[in-house]
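User: For documentation purposes, I need each entry recorded in a consistent format: the amino acid sequence on its own, followed directly by the corresponding structure tokens. There are two entries in this batch. Please keep commentary to a minimum and don't merge the entries.

Assistant: Recorded as requested. Entry 1:
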Amino acid sequence: MEQQESKQYWEIFEIKVRPLTERQQRTIAYNFCLLIEKDLDDLGKGALKLVQQLTAGDISSEECTAYREQLQHRLPDEGTSPYSPLIWALTPHTASYPAWYSAAIVGLNVIDLGRSTFPELTDLTKEILNSF
């Protein structure tokens, strides 16, 4: 069952999210990050604000890099941390890691943290797509 749910999740990203603008893709990542907001400390909350600013394109890549590095230094040695989705959400859009892929990984991190499931994130993604 989970394999089918995972397949549906990835299909919506590859078919529907991939062609969107970077800002729209980042909006999806931001909405996923909101699911872990209550787990964040001050550093995480600051990073979440940067992720929100990315949805409007109102932030420099230097600021994102600085926050991403701070978050990475505070990651535990094992397991997924509430910082993990934020790190992916702040990852620059590149050919290797396009924003749509990073947004999908944000969702996987949220699932690993037990804050959502594949079907819930697939439904949330569809809701966000309908709002564009």
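Entry 2:
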Amino acid sequence: MTRTGALLAELHEAEEALAREFHRVAERQAADHGTHYPCLTLAARCEEHAARLRAAAGRHGRDLSEPRHSEPLSHLLDAVRRKSSERRGHHTSAGQLLLRDLRHLFLAAQEVSLLWLLLGQVARAVRDQELLADVEELHPGTLGQIGWLTTRLKDAAPQVLATAD
């Protein structure tokens, strides 16, 4: 296995972790449609990135398997999160939970972006045009996620933090 393969594996895991976190936030924020649906869309984008990374890793001698999902348990947890979100939807702490969720997503997306940046540098250094093409196509998607999260944080922060308890 090459070091490039190890970096691909690390980025793959980070993309999958970010997808899982987007799904969790979508379920926790089910009452907030301006967060719920975009998070589902962004989770799907992360999953697409992970699939592309699996293919690239294969070209670099690294076999990355698809994530294993525990369907019955996953659906049960999603239902509990959704119900909990609906109950919290009008509670004052809902905004604080939203800010916490968005901050965690923002930091995770920044880590993914940094790994894409490193992978791009490696692809240039070893003159791997196919890998570089993947980076140039997929990294902007992560930057778009960061942009959405930044905007959402800017919208939510004053509403949550500038109001009296």
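Summary note for entry 2:
The chain has a mean pLDDT of 87.
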